[in-house]
Specification:
The complex is a heterodimer of chains A (122) and B (144). By secondary structure, chain A is α/β, with parallel strands linked by helices. Helices cover 40% and strands 32% of the residues of chain A. Chain B has a single domain, classed as Histidine kinase-like ATPase, C-terminal domain (Heat Shock Protein 90), CATH 3.30.565.10. The chains are: A alpha/beta (122), B alpha+beta (144).
Chain lengths: 122, 144
């Protein structure tokens, strides 16, 4: 189900091979991050503990957004789950490198590669 | 000589506006295109922290941003009332997110983006100053 939202952030999610894929588009910052946070919390509450956040259409990400992703990771890990990212944009990967979070998150080039990696671990 | 000054009500919605202005002024001042993403991110971080600081203690006080170019450098100063590290609410202080949501985390991000970062605190408030080099021709003052 596509979720409409303000111009700055678009969110959508769907299930593929038992993993919930969250498509994010636009800018994740102090203003828009709460919506992503609420969605991740909602998905975990619904019992989705294996998540892939697709950030290929994210145009901006700051530490507030990082905090939301880290929060989501912690929530799913409390249920033995996983939260991986799909991102090839250097401008977005940069903040993960600066903060050392490339060592915390699994970051993949495509959704299918992220799914394949998780399936191979089962 | 200060070229542009902006002040805005401390609302998260206005942080994006400050980022857009910062990139526009940086580009006009002669900051290399390859550095503009860093400018945008660093200003966003500083303004986000300033908004969080005001939200709790000084909701009626505007956040002030000044853009200046001199001595071959483009400098941005973000000034807010109060301390840099408030105990705020919202995703920036999500207890589950832990260290990644801590206010000091954003300062670490800024330090990784600008090669010159200074933070000064006084009874009047906090100033985060950061700068980037200007590229040759525009830094010399020739028309854009």
């Amino acid at each position: 189900m596509a979720l409409e939202g303000p111009v700055e952030l678009k969110l959508d999610h769907y299930n593929k091979d038992g993993i919930e894929i969250v498509d994010v588009g636009g800018e994740i910052d102090v203003y828009t991050a709460p919506r992503l946070r609420e969605l991740l919390i909602e998905l975990v509450t619904q019992g989705h503990y294996r998540l892939v956040v697709n950030m290929e259409k994210v145009e901006f990400l700051d530490s507030t957004g990082l905090g939301v992703l880290v929060g989501g990771l912690k929530r799913v890990r409390a249920h033995d789950g996983s939260l991986d990212l799909v991102c090839t944009q250097e401008r977005i990967l940069k903040i993960f490198r600066i903060t050392g979070l490339t060592k915390v998150f699994g970051i993949y080039e495509t959704v299918d590669k992220a799914i394949e990696e998780r399936k191979s671990e089962r | 000589m200060t070229t542009v000054q902006v002040s805005f009500t401390p609302l998260p919605a206005h942080v994006r506006t400050a980022r857009l202005i910062a990139v526009a002024v940086a580009r006009r001042s002669g900051v290399d295109e390859s550095l503009l993403d860093e400018v945008r991110l660093a200003v966003g971080e500083a303004c986000s922290r300033a908004v969080e600081a005001h939200r709790e203690q000084y909701p009626g006080e505007p956040v002030r941003v000044a853009f200046d170019s001199h001595d071959g450098r483009f400098e941005i100063e973000v000034a807010n009332a109060g301390l840099v590290a408030p105990s705020g609410s919202g995703p920036a202080s999500d207890p589950v997110a832990g260290a990644a949501a801590a206010p000091g985390f954003s300062l670490a991000v800024i330090a990784g983006l600008a090669d010159d970062v200074r933070i000064s605190e006084s009874p009047a408030g906090t100033r985060v100053t950061m700068s980037w080099p200007l590229s040759g021709s525009l830094a010399a003052g020739s028309p854009a």
